[in-house]
């Protein structure tokens, strides 16, 4: 079952032989799972926000590609291991993870984590897929995490900030465009 409109491209699966390069850690009082990868000394970090199907598919590979380009990358699991797979009411399932208090606190913890791990990070960009596009835009609009690091505001409503993983062909260009705003 999919929450995407009919005619959308299919879910992007990961190659069966792919071995992720990062590690999974737990963050904060709510045990937020994070997939982290990349150099701690990176000048820019990227938060990759998943769709409603969690970490399956190619998201860890996308994170690894960003890290290979020199970014410190964080992929949170704001749904704590649960996914929309097999749920008859996806909208109801999504509503169980509201912005406040859950997702907002997760973003605050993520930006604080980036600040503590990567002292040289000057910018934080966000790339969201499906549900993650909403979460990233909401965080940018509310300025979450600005006390620790400035979460770049995604003021353009171009499709680069809300594309399915299968459309990404040049991660460096995508991230560079998200981080290009004056800081």
Please outline the helices and strands.
Elements: E1 23-27, E2 32-37, E3 44-49, H1 59-68, E4 72-76, H2 90-95, H3 99-117, E5 123-128, H4 131-142, H5 171-179
Parallel strand pairs: 3-4, 3-5
Antiparallel strand pairs: 1-2, 2-4
Explain what the structure shows.
31% of the residues lie in helices and 15% in strands. With 183 residues, the protein is an alpha/beta fold. It has a single domain, classed as Rossmann fold (3-Layer(aba) Sandwich). The longest helix has 19 residues. The C terminus is likely disordered.
Main beta-sheet strand count, sense and barrel state: 5 strands, mixed
**How far apart are the termini?**
41 Å
* Name of the CATH class: Alpha Beta
Mean pLDDT across the residues is 76
The total count of strands amounts to: 5
Q: Please tell me how large the radius of gyration is.
A: 15 Å
Strand content: 15-25%
Order of helices and strands: EEEHEHHEHH
CATH topology: Rossmann fold
Give a concise summary.
The chain has 183 residues and is an alpha/beta fold. It is built from five helices and five strands.
């Amino acid at each position: 079952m999919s929450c995407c409109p009919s005619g959308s491209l299919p879910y992007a699966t990961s190659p069966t032989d792919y071995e992720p390069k990062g590690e999974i850690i737990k963050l904060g009082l709510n045990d937020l799972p994070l997939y982290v990868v990349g150099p701690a000394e990176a000048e820019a970090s990227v938060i990759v926000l998943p769709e409603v199907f969690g970490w399956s598919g190619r998201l860890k590979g996308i994170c690894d590609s960003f890290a290979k380009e020199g970014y410190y990358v964080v992929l949170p699991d704001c749904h704590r291991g649960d996914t929309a797979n097999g749920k008859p009411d996806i909208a109801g399932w999504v509503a169980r993870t509201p912005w406040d208090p859950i997702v907002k606190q997760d973003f605050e913890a993520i930006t604080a984590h980036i600040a503590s791990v990567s002292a040289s990070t000057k910018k934080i960009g966000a790339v969201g897929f499906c549900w993650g596009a909403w979460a990233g835009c909401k965080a940018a609009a509310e300025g979450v995490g600005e006390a620790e690091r400035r979460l770049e505001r995604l003021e353009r409503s171009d499709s680069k900030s809300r594309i399915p993983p299968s459309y990404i062909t040049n991660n460096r260009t995508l991230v560079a465009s998200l981080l290009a705003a004056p800081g």
